[in-house]
Design a protein that fits this description.
five-stranded mixed β-sheet, single chain, alpha+beta
């Protein structure tokens, strides 16, 4: 109980360690991820800004700015300062320059591998005209921005590159195209430049690949280490439990015959027994039976250790004849035997000694674990690539949680400290060893309360 509690506490502690370590790793990687993303954004903004500061772009932007002034002056002259009219005029008169700017930006972005998936746009955010101290808003900050040049986009990957504000003053002394102005005009234009970084996740993950790999490797290494530690502890506990169970079982198995031997020897020393020849013979027969029981226990233990060293002698074997002879020699004192052997002749290249060992174990177990006078079936049939022999009893069956261990050495289905059936847990282990030596398969089919069926699959 103390070992189970210790292992349980260690498992809980390990889970807490893994959880804490995972949380720390997540926090560090998340922060690194955010810093890497910001660094990537900063680099992209810097490179894009350098590209947009080229002389060609500045020249074309100046032309667009000058054209805006001319369009607004013309609108004032015509008394048609209307947002829709002004921007339609801008669109018509700036068409060529828009094409030049868009072509230049697209070409340069495509030629830069690090900016190939970047989109750029510039737009009017606000246009205000001041005349004689009176403000006239052509485009307010609450209105929908008007595209200046670039690509239209508005997605989650949009980043602000910069804000620009230009103030132009047109006074009455200024003359262009022979137009005179009677009042001063101040033109305030605010523009914003944006970029869309569509593949930022791929770029950031690429930069952080080493960090992700190192973090994942560390977590996997810790989990693997803890798994190996607990596997070793559980294996050792299982071995210790097996040793304890074996010691308890063999002590229990030997205690009864040894007690009987002790009583017999004491009885044989009595004068009345020495004087009675019949009684002496009866005691000697009882002593011989107890000796055979002890010898059987010792042989089982030795066979478990030595079976793998016994040489296998394969020979042609007619299974119908072999099973008929086996059934003929089989004597069940307390059970009924039902036999259904495949009538056809089937010649195998196998070992009759090992097959008989397996059958003896299965039949003996069927007698042990089923009530007297119940039926034990021995059946055989050709099943695909195998000749299958089945031994079925009407015992209590084996629950699913024990079936995976039933062929393990010294394993016995727990009986809650009851010893209704004697044994060391070696029979099925020896049967499986024998089956492995002749390349056969041993299979269990059982349900709790519905008996068990052990099948020997012999390769044809």
């Amino acid at each position: 109980m103390e070992k189970k509690f210790t292992i349980r506490m260690l498992m809980i502690l390990s889970l807490l360690i893994i959880g804490t370590l995972s949380s720390i790793q997540y926090y560090l990687i998340h922060n690194t991820y955010e810093l890497t993303k910001e660094k990537y954004y900063t680099e992209v903004k810097k490179r894009t800004t350098q590209l947009m500061n080229a002389a060609v772009v500045d020249s074309l932007e100046d032309k667009l700015q000058e054209n805006l002034k001319q369009v607004i002056i013309h609108a004032y002259e015509q008394d048609k300062l209307n947002k829709k009219v002004v921007f339609q005029s801008l669109k018509d008169s700036n068409h060529v320059w828009y094409q030049q700017l868009n072509g230049y930006i697209y070409q340069n972005l495509q030629h830069r591998k690090d900016l190939r998936n970047i989109q750029y746009k510039s737009q009017y955010e606000e246009i205000i005209i001041e005349k004689g101290g009176v403000l006239d808003t052509l485009l307010s900050s609450t209105d929908v921005p008007v595209m200046l040049f670039g690509n239209k986009f508005n997605d989650a990957n949009t980043l602000l590159l910069n804000h620009n504000e230009t103030v132009s003053v047109v006074n009455k002394n200024m003359r262009e195209k022979q137009i005179n102005y009677s009042q001063n005009l101040k033109l305030i234009v605010r523009t914003s430049n944006y970029i869309s970084v569509s593949d930022w996740k791929k770029a950031v993950f690429s930069q952080m690949l080493g960090t992700f790999t190192l973090g994942a490797t560390l977590i996997i290494a810790v989990i693997s280490l803890l798994y190996m530690v607990f596997s070793a502890m559980i294996r050792q506990k299982k071995i210790a439990d097996i040793k304890t169970d074996f010691a308890n079982n063999i002590t229990h198995e030997l205690k009864t015959p040894l007690s009987s031997v002790s009583l017999i020897l004491k009885s044989m020393g009595r004068d009345d027994v020495k004087a009675n020849k019949v009684l002496q013979d009866d005691l000697l027969q009882s002593l011989n039976r107890q000796y055979l029981k002890i010898q059987h226990i010792v042989d089982s233990v030795l066979e478990g250790a030595m079976l793998s060293e016994i040489p296998v002698q394969l020979e042609p074997l007619d299974m119908h004849t072999f099973l008929e002879n086996y059934v003929h020699d089989l004597r069940l004192k307390s059970h009924q035997l039902a036999v259904d052997i495949d009538p056809g002749s089937c010649l195998l290249h196998s070992s009759p000694l090992f097959i008989e060992k397996i059958l003896n174990v299965l039949v003996e177990n069927a007698q042990k674990y089923s009530a007297p006078q119940t039926v034990i079936k021995l059946e055989s049939a050709i099943n695909g690539k195998y000749y299958t022999i089945a031994v079925t009893d009407e015992g209590p069956g084996i629950t699913a949680d024990h079936q995976a261990y039933i062929f393990d050495k010294f394993y016995r289905v727990p009986e809650e400290n009851r010893h209704s059936v004697k044994g060391l847990g070696l029979g099925l282990f020896l049967a499986r060893q024998a089956a492995d030596r002749i390349q056969a398969k041993l299979e269990l089919k059982s349900k709790a309360g519905k008996g068990s069926s052990f099948l020997i699959h012999l390769p044809l």
